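We modelled the chain as a single entity of 201 amino acids. Its sequence is:
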Amino acid sequence: MSYLGIGVSPGNVPIHHRSNLKVIDKRVRLAELILRCLICGLAVLAAVLIGTDSQVRVIFSIQKKAKFTDMKSLVFLVIANGLAAAYSLVQVIRCILSMIRGSVLFNKPLAWAIFSGDQLMAYLNLAAVAAAAQSAVFSKLGQTELQWMKLCDMYGKYCNQAGEGVASSVIASLSMIVLSGISAFSLFRLYGNSGGKGNAK
């Protein structure tokens, strides 16, 4: 029995149903949209910064050009950021369409697909950032035991721009972790009492 959206539990305790659910859902969807736009922008920025990074130095009358393809970890990072940007763009469009239609929840297969996609993108980008960060440390500090030079002493501009790209990727990866939590919340609440009856509107 309910009046004005307020139900009564078996213990005669008032319970708020749809009004609170809709408010929470709107906030979750807005946060998701903002995060996906942020991730898309940062991933594109990182891919452009690293993908266009190069510097030419003349050493003993020989021109040496440093570019991002010289470091496989940076190539991996550019690819990971490109995939993250494309995936985020698709999800931004989905979020906007969902908000326009006014749907509260979505069905379980779609929720699982989004959750799995978010997890995959988060792990992929974290792996790429970790590999790039390790290469950045070797480039900055060198490795005397292996006679690896401090490349950033020679290619300062190249290292600075690559560092900016890696920093953008780090922020994007952290945002993906938060987004994975949001998609997990959206998925597992479908198995709760309020969402367990079936698919969304």
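As a brief sanity check on the tokenised model: The longest strand covers residues 54-59. The chain has five helices and five strands.
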